[in-house]
Amino acid sequence: RRRPDFTLAAADRPHLADICRLVDGMPLGLELAATWVEMLSLPQIAAEIRHNLDFLETAVHNIPARHRSMRAVFDASWQRLTNEEQNAYAQLTVFRGGFTAAAAKAVTGASLPTLASLVKQSLLRATPGAGRYDIHELLRQYASAKLEESDTEESAVRDRHAAYFCGLLQEKAADLKGARQQDALREIESELENADVAWRRATDRQQLAQLAQSLEALALFYKWHGRVREGHATCGLAVDQLHASTRSAGAADRAHLLLRLYTWRSVFDLWSANYDATEQALQ
User: Fold this and answer.
1) 24 band by pLDDT with thresholds 50, 70 and 90
2) Can you tell me the distance from the alpha carbon of 150 to that of 143, in angstroms, rounded to the nearest whole number?
3) Average pLDDT, stretch 240-255?
4) What share of the chain is helix, strand, coil (3-state, %, to 5)?
5) How many Cα atoms occupy the beta-carbon half-sphere of 158 within 13 Å?
């Protein structure tokens, strides 16, 4: 209706499907996305939605104000939440790739009744068989902005998230060397996005103990899955940050951690047949 001459080419079909997934099939989201078809291609519309929630808004004035943008729709849903639900939901946005009820409780304090209420209001999606929850990306962007309104609270919940998943990786390290190896690999795979966020947070905050906790499990996971490039990048990120640090505290722990990081980086270089880099790292 927006562009009568529009023809859906075969190459556009994956991008149209991507747009439908990004707005979770919401009719309003699709209508708001369609208003841009006169100016942008479908790949461009999909990219804009993925990176900017406010892209999905319209200047059309013959519809109610609450329906002019996805943010207005989400505002209405947000106002229906209790203070406890609002706090929990905003904090849950620190997770990536879903989360378990146990992780939600440890990181945000959200109880099972709170999670159930959020699911009932279509703000969370539950996967009963897997025991996991996740937030649609558009909703995550919206609630994440609420969390960012309090720098102190945001920092604290991100620190708890990092501590939880670094500790979880430490628990899996022993399993990776025993009879539960395959189970541990699958469990790390399901939490890999959270593990990556936790590693980056611990690196940025120079949390040496957390990095030391999680290094072995992450490195073994990447090695045994043949994900050499990711393993190398993970070690390299921490090496660069630790070398750039000007802190004098914990010098011995820092040196020991760097030794382990260089050793693992040499392993990934060796697996890539990059022998000069392997020798350099070991030296």
Assistant:
1) confident
2) 12
3) 83
4) 70, 5, 25
5) 19
